[in-house]
Amino acid sequence: MSIEPKAAPRVRKLSMKDRYSALTRDLDWEPTYVTSEQMFPQTTFEGITIHDWSKWEDPFRLTVDAYTKYQAEKDKRLYAVLDGFAQSQGHLSLTDASYLNAMKLFIQGIAPNEYNAHRNFAMLARQLNGGGPRFAALCQSLDEIRHAQTEIHTLANYNKYYSGFHSFPHMHDRVWYLSVPKSFFEDALSAGPFEWLIAIGFSFEYLLTNLLFVPFMSGASFNGDLPTMTFGFSAQSDESRHMTLGLEAIKFLLEQDEKNVPIVQYWLDKWFWRGYRLLALVAQMLDYMLPREFMSWKEAFELYFEEQMLNGLFKDLEYYGITPPKHVDKAIQEKEYLSHQAYWILYQFSHAAAFTTSIPSDEHMDWLEAKYPETFPVYRTLWEKEKKNVANGGRHFIRGLPQLCQVCQIPMGFTEADDPFVQAQREHIFEGERYNFCSDGCQYIFEHEPVKFRRAWLPVHQIYQGNCGAADLPGVLQWYGMQEGDGGEYLGSIDHQNWLAWHDMADHGAKKEN
Amino acid sequence: MGALVDTLTDVPPVRSLGEYDIPSRSAKELYGDDMLVMVWWKGNPWFVAAACFRAPEAMPFGDFWNALFVPYHEEDPDFDASKGWEQFDWFLAVNRDEVPISIDPAKSLAELGVTHKGVLGFKSR
């Protein structure tokens, strides 16, 4: 056998489209030694019928070399910004150290789930029958691990100066409020590949993605956080591909067989509500955690969900027999008060959290009142009571553990629509055991999957079983990996004191020069 | 107390790759002679959610009041423990409904009708 190069090949450069096809679809084959069920064992049990995998249009249309070249360019730009920001002590030009509470939530709650998304899309890249969707899943899997890495690198600089950023993967696995995003993603990870595509690919990456990312990234831009803003831009072009993939996935399932429609509709109902409940964390961040506000949750919800999704997307999906998600009316109603209730939860439990909270300033409350003229005055009475409490030497930290919702795992602080002070209580008795829910939406999900959701690892119930390191709060916080200064009241906290000292030093420096 | 009556019976079949019938991670037997009790001050927004306590089923209500209830609720500056449990109307929450109960401090939580993960509600008179 000769190792000489063969005679010069015919010079024929493939078009981008042909190249893409040669490098993706042409690597697909029909198995002959095993059945396709044996080769792809995960794509039948969910009850989804696929007649023709070749009908899947891959929106990525990238080859690996084009993809990596493009991503490397973006990384280069991002890391240049990160270096410059670190070298110039850019953290001192944030609006306030309390801004970073939003980023603490981000690294603790979101970054580990970018990694989870990477894992599951990698699984899809093996398990989907079609060559097109497998390649699309591979690209998204690479995007997701890159996002996990760049988010962590972006925020790592703050870890040098501020509390609450250390130990985030450890905390993600253990801490009570992080069980909300963790259980959300693990519900999707433990579902089949099609439910994952609707849960994460469509509902999370398409339906709700702007409500998640715009508040964080614009919040960063308004509060002097150049690295996070740059990370956001760097991820944006990936996100638009993910949105296209999510939309392609749902259309593909709906077009393949009519029998798929009711299955997809339930997944939509379920994952809209799961995602919406998770976004309660974003709602309170947007309205309460940003020292320089730019948009209320209500405005974001109206623009990114009601206008773009309900009035846009769902008009298109009507053609397939898909209706807007069940319980969406409740979400619309809650836009008036979701953030007030969510922040009130975090405020009174922040002694057990790795972020801090504080009473909103009077100016901030005026802003809230302007944004929520109908509802905020009611919640303002609570803050006035707390102000008095603080003046008398108190600070509202709950002396115990809350009732949790079996499905979303959030403390049951969301109220009935007709009474701002009466929390909703829903329940079911299933095989002799009682389960509690915060809402009709969460109860509805349990009704469909009680065996899965009775397995939920509810932090409060686990603490009482002795599975969280200790029976007392200090012991549990130690098991959570928390350190002094991570949680509690912001005013007077380690971060706050450092912030004042650093800026005081800067003032003295300026005076000397005069 | 008799066993709870299932309210959820018509459940869609589980779709899974293999056998999937796993037990609850919060089942009563995991707490021995204790149970989890949700305690809900209905209409008082100071406490953002009902509290969850672990308490013996046989704990008399009077002990429950002194050992668990008061230390927790005293955190609300408007709560006056000296007025006793009589200052409230007590009930068991069943979805949106209230099933009133009359308190006898000598009776155990179980005798009052509180069950594992049940909601013991109360309202200011």
What's the helical proportion of residues of chain A?
55-70%
Quaternary state of this entry equals: heterodimer
Number of strands of chain A: 5
Shape of chain B: elongated
Q: Helix count of chain B, per DSSP?
A: 1
- Tally the helices of chain A: 22
Q: What is the fold-level CATH name, i.e. the topology of chain A?
A: Ribonucleotide Reductase, subunit A
CATH topology of chain B: Ubiquitin-like (UB roll)
Structural class of chain A: mainly alpha
N→C terminal distance of chain A:
83 Å
Which residues of chain A sit in consecutive blocks of at least 5 with pLDDT less than 50? none
Strand content of chain A: under 5%
Distance between the termini of chain B: 28 Å
Q: Mean pLDDT of chain A, rounded to whole units?
A: 93
Tell me the major beta sheet of chain A: 2 strands, parallel
**CATH level-four homologous superfamily name of chain B:** Phenol hydroxylase
**From the 3D coordinates, which CATH architecture of chain B would you assign?**
Roll
**Total domains of chain B:** 1
Strand segment tally of chain B:
5
* Structural class label of chain B: alpha+beta
Structural commentary:
- With about 525 residues, chain A is mainly α.
- Chain A has one domain (about 55-495): Ribonucleotide Reductase, subunit A, CATH 1.10.620.20.
- Chain A contains 22 helices and 5 strands.
- In chain A, a hairpin with a 2-residue loop joins strand 3 (about 425-430) and strand 4 (about 435).
- With about 120 residues, chain B is an alpha+beta fold.
- In chain B, about 10% of the residues lie in helices and about 25% in strands.
- The model of chain B has no long low-confidence stretch (mean pLDDT about 95).
- Strand 2 of chain A pairs antiparallel with strand 2 (about 50-55) of chain B.
